[in-house]
């Protein structure tokens, strides 16, 4: 039986109430600062002096935007060092343990693609990285609940998801650190490929387009997740806090490369 007009009106009323009274999640994704790419071991791939300056500028900007947030970070040296510098500007900030699921990798195949365009080793790396990075996406992109509920799902490498909004997740016992507030903030310091994939997934864009986006060192990508499940992007790779002479994409300076 199709829904009646009364059912539709009640559904709209519930959605308006949820949006008005529910909690909006603010997820700010930050790429690490410039680092020494010529080193082979991760522990030696630390920030350059410029990279440390970039992280310092980023921490200052975040201090102006928000305080009392939780900082999450990947388990790679350059991201942890960036997070340390940023957190030094955020008084009383909570730090979570490094999460290896946020480590850099190839999150999805790209278009154009196929054997004629990419190497077999690249295809294998992508197949290996997809499940891990998709797991990270499902950890951190969910509707806020009071108390919040979360279920971390691991999908097969072929599943890129086509749901209409961020799923409502379903495991309890996670304390709501922002009880009474209608906004909760989370800062995630990780890597360019991971950030680009998260953006595509959150906005329901084909994840195969991730490599067409550009996120500079210490750039901010800012997404909001409403209690109704709708997602919007407020910033994409924003580096307005960095002077031009301190703006880099990896070892490339400025924009003319």
From TrEMBL:
<dbReference type="Pfam" id="PF00300">
    <property type="entry name" value="His_Phos_1"/>
</dbReference>
<dbReference type="InterPro" id="IPR051021">
    <property type="entry name" value="Mito_Ser/Thr_phosphatase"/>
</dbReference>
<dbReference type="InterPro" id="IPR029033">
    <property type="entry name" value="His_PPase_superfam"/>
</dbReference>
<protein>
    <recommendedName>
        <fullName>Serine/threonine-protein phosphatase PGAM5, mitochondrial</fullName>
    </recommendedName>
</protein>
<keyword id="KW-0808">Transferase</keyword>
<dbReference type="GO" id="GO:0090141">
    <property type="term" value="P:positive regulation of mitochondrial fission"/>
</dbReference>
<comment type="similarity">
    <text>Belongs to the phosphoglycerate mutase family. BPG-dependent PGAM subfamily.</text>
</comment>
<feature type="compositionally biased region" description="Basic and acidic residues">
    <location>
        <begin position="91"/>
        <end position="107"/>
    </location>
</feature>
<feature type="region of interest" description="Disordered">
    <location>
        <begin position="90"/>
        <end position="122"/>
    </location>
</feature>
<dbReference type="GO" id="GO:0016301">
    <property type="term" value="F:kinase activity"/>
</dbReference>
<feature type="region of interest" description="Disordered">
    <location>
        <begin position="1"/>
        <end position="22"/>
    </location>
</feature>
<feature type="compositionally biased region" description="Basic and acidic residues">
    <location>
        <begin position="1"/>
        <end position="12"/>
    </location>
</feature>
<keyword id="KW-0418">Kinase</keyword>
<dbReference type="GO" id="GO:0004722">
    <property type="term" value="F:protein serine/threonine phosphatase activity"/>
</dbReference>
<dbReference type="InterPro" id="IPR001345">
    <property type="entry name" value="PG/BPGM_mutase_AS"/>
</dbReference>
<dbReference type="InterPro" id="IPR013078">
    <property type="entry name" value="His_Pase_superF_clade-1"/>
</dbReference>
<keyword id="KW-0378">Hydrolase</keyword>
<dbReference type="GO" id="GO:0005739">
    <property type="term" value="C:mitochondrion"/>
</dbReference>
